[in-house]
Amino acid sequence: MSGTRYDAVVDDQVAQYVKSGLNNKLDNEDTQNVQQLPQILENKDMKKYWAQRYKLFSKFDKGIRLDYDSWFSVTPERIARHIAERCRCDLIVDVFCGAGGNSIQFAFKCERVIAIDIDPSKIELARHNASVYGVADRIEFIVGDFFQLAPSLKADVVFLSPPWGGPKYLSAPQFCLEDMQPNGIDIFEAAQKITPNLAYCLPRNTNIDQLIGIATDGEAEIEQNILNNKVKTITAYYGGLILDPCRLQILCK
């Protein structure tokens, strides 16, 4: 699809969304995404994410709220749902919850979810979005630094999806854990002290050998998460979450 045609399609979607919002008389809080539309229209990359909004949240039009960073950091819902099924347990900690995409799906599969983010505004978004899905009461939201909280945390599973640095991570031939801020290896080691059962969601170009190498027992399962015939992310599973160690699994979604 050419750039011109793509822009035309997205502009039409934007116009339809605004019309729908006005017809439904959305209040000021629920028009947050509508207010972002000028910013979206001016940014080619943002238009791409706007076109995929229902893949991020199937209930997007029910009042989902995202800030700028969340548009390109939220795990697509179908992938988040699959990861949640793999991580099914009594208590799971979502260490970098962001706007809540993963925490919401965990709440459907786990008895209790602890969602952590150092940014209070992200926690507000996550709490609101969880309420859209009717699961906010199953999630404990905490504003805080994971490294400071980690020594006091207990969980059956820890889920890691740290900030990758925005879309620019794809420009590198290979993504390494040290490329993240905070350092991805430090994150893994802190989480491993809570439980050996970890799920690490990372860019599709992440160094696979490194993901296996950081495992204490040298075992990991690496899963490619695919949407629309494209690899979107990879998830590395450790400890009791491993179904087939040291093999690359391809998940078609």
From TrEMBL:
Its main location: cytoplasm. The keyword Ion transport does not apply. Gene3D superfamilies: Vaccinia Virus protein VP39 (3.40.50.150). It is found in: Cytoplasm; Nucleus, Cajal body; Nucleus, Nucleolus. GO terms for cellular component: Cajal body; cytoplasm; nucleolus; nucleus. GO terms for molecular function: RNA cap trimethylguanosine synthase activity. Coiled coil: none annotated. GO terms for biological process: 7-methylguanosine cap hypermethylation. InterPro entries: RNA_cap_Gua-N2-MeTrfase, SAM-dependent_MTases_sf. The keyword tRNA processing does not apply. It catalyses: a 5'-end (N(7)-methyl 5'-triphosphoguanosine)-ribonucleoside in snRNA + S-adenosyl-L-methionine = a 5'-end (N(2),N(7)-dimethyl 5'-triphosphoguanosine)-ribonucleoside in snRNA + S-adenosyl-L-homocysteine + H(+); a 5'-end (N(7)-methyl 5'-triphosphoguanosine)-ribonucleoside in snoRNA + S-adenosyl-L-methionine = a 5'-end (N(2),N(7)-dimethyl 5'-triphosphoguanosine)-ribonucleoside in snoRNA + S-adenosyl-L-homocysteine + H(+); a 5'-end (N(2),N(7)-dimethyl 5'-triphosphoguanosine)-ribonucleoside in snRNA + S-adenosyl-L-methionine = a 5'-end (N(2),N(2),N(7)-trimethyl 5'-triphosphoguanosine)-ribonucleoside in snRNA + S-adenosyl-L-homocysteine + H(+); a 5'-end (N(2),N(7)-dimethyl 5'-triphosphoguanosine)-ribonucleoside in snoRNA + S-adenosyl-L-methionine = a 5'-end (N(2),N(2),N(7)-trimethyl 5'-triphosphoguanosine)-ribonucleoside in snoRNA + S-adenosyl-L-homocysteine + H(+). Keywords: Cytoplasm, Methyltransferase, Nucleus, Phosphoprotein, S-adenosyl-L-methionine, Transcription, Transcription regulation, Transferase. Belongs to the methyltransferase superfamily. Trimethylguanosine synthase family. Catalyzes the 2 serial methylation steps for the conversion of the 7-monomethylguanosine (m(7)G) caps of snRNAs and snoRNAs to a 2,2,7-trimethylguanosine (m(2,2,7)G) cap structure. The enzyme is specific for guanine, and N7 methylation must precede N2 methylation. Hypermethylation of the m7G cap of U snRNAs leads to their concentration in nuclear foci, their colocalization with coilin and the formation of canonical Cajal bodies (CBs). Plays a role in transcriptional regulation. May form homooligomers. Interacts with CREBBP/CBP, EED/WAIT1, EP300/P300, NCOA6/PRIP, PPARBP/PBP and SMN. This is Trimethylguanosine synthase. It comes from Daphnia pulex (Water flea).
